[in-house]
Amino acid sequence: MKTILVSSGVALILSLFGTPLAIKVFTRRGYGQLIREEGPAAHATKRGTPTMGGTVIVIATLIGYFVGHVATNNPMSASGLLVLMLMAGLGLVGFIDDVIKIYKQTSLGLRSGAKLAGQAVVGGLFAVLVVNSRLADGFDLTPADAHLSFLRDFGPSLGTVPFVLWIMFLIAGTSNAVNLTDGLDGLATGAATLVLAAYVLIANWQLRNDCTVNLTPHCYPIASPLDLAVVAAAALGACFGFLWWNAPPARIFMGDTGSLALGGILAGLAVTTKTQLLLGILGGLFVIIALSVIIQVSSFKTTGRRVFRMAPLQHHFELIGWAETTIVIRFWLICGLCIALGLGIFYVEWLPG
Question: Does residue 307 fall inside a structural domain?
Fold first, then answer.
C-alpha cells in the first residue's frame, strides 16, 4: 500500500508542476495544435494551444513507479514493467505522429497504415513477452495466459499465435478508441482517470485474494497484483495532475502521445489482471465513441447518408448546440456509470449465495 501511495503521489506532483513547464517550452517552440478544417467552428479558438502534453503523463508515470519502488524497497515485477513498456511504446508511436503534424503544419500525422503498424509492433512484442515472462519467486505464473478473460480466464487455451493476434487487436482497438475520445478539453483524460481508478481497486482486490497467498475457491491466479495496482495508481496520479491544466478551457492537449499511451496502459492492465472483456464495460465510453465512428463510416459508404452530424460522437453534440463543458461532464458521468456497472459485475461473484 505504501508503494501505491508514494508512486501515485510522486506522479501527481510531477504532472501537476511539470505540465506548466511543458506549456512554456512547447509554446516557445511553436508546438501548437492544428485544427481540422471540417470540425466545429468553435474549435478555431483552440488553434495554437500546446500539444504533446502526453509526454508529461508518460514521464510522470514512469518516474512515479520507479521512485515508489525505490522509496519503499519493494521489488518491481515483470507484469508491471511490461505494462509500462506498452504504455511508453505506444506513447512513442503517438509522439512521432504529433511531431509529423507539427512539422507539416497539418491535422494529419502518420498515415493510418503506418500508425497501425507501429501499434502492431509494440502490441505484438508485449503479447509475446506477457505469456513467456515467468516469475522468479518459484510460482509457475506468467503475467498472462493464452486464454480469453472476463472476470478471470475462461474457456480453452487459444494457443500462442491466436492469443498474440487477439491481444494486438485489443491494444490497437483500445488505444484508437481513447484517441478518438480525445476531441474535447479534458474528456479523454478524465475518462481514463476514472478507468485507472477502477483498476487500482480491481488489482487491490486481487491482491487480497491472491492464490499464491491463500488458496480459496474464488482466489485469483494473478502475477504480481500489487505491482499492477502501483502501475495503475502512478498513471492515475499523472492523469490527475495533467487534468488540472487540460480541463476546459484546456491550456495544453495530450496529443496522440498521451491518448495512445493511455489506451495502451488500459489494455495492458486488462490483459495482466485477466479482465480483457471487462475492459469493454469499464471503458464503455471509449467503446461508444469508437462505435459512433464505425457506424458513421459504414452508413456513409453503404447508403451515402450520415447517421450523426459529425463523428466522433462528442462533435455531433457540439453541432446540435451543446456547450463543450456540458458534453465533457455528461460523458464523464456516462463513463462513471459504465465503471460502476463493471465493478458491480466484478464483485458479484463474491456475494453470498
Answer: no
